[in-house]
Amino acid sequence: MKQLLPLLLTLILLSSCGNKSNTNHTEQKSTNTSICDNDLYDYCVKVVSISDGDTFRGLTEDNDEIKFRIFGVDAPERHQAFGKRSTQYLSKLIFGETVGIKVESIDYFGRSVVWVYTPNGKDVSAEMLKAGMAWHFKKYDQSREYASLEKSARINGIGLWRDNKPTPPWEFRRNERR
Q: Does the structure show a pLDDT above 60 at 6?
């Protein structure tokens, strides 16, 4: 039942808001005083905790807490090299902020997999990739833009790309289970 709660909350929120226009995900221009005063997002949440560089919790207007997984990126685990820095960077971007959410899917763990936009309309996935704080998760996203952002950070040795051969989180998790 616990795993169904995020799914049910997301479905309720989406049905009450309607699915908003599907526009370019990189940067959503918000000319209003609040990111939520437009129809660009499925809904908005106030970010109340950061689990790691690609997962956070947010509160809805009804004070329901939902766990989110950021679409298109896979960040280092907290106890992996650059894990703490990635978590801190995501926190700097969105902790305590009201962010725009566009739902992509629900994952195996019952988390909403989402595009997230900062109060000034920046795509959080793109920001994490530019800063070298996450890998482009090509297994689930084929975006040329995200691939290009990762490649640029890698070439310029930004963030986790300072290491000669950083271990992708999916390999780190696989090795941890052994």
A: no
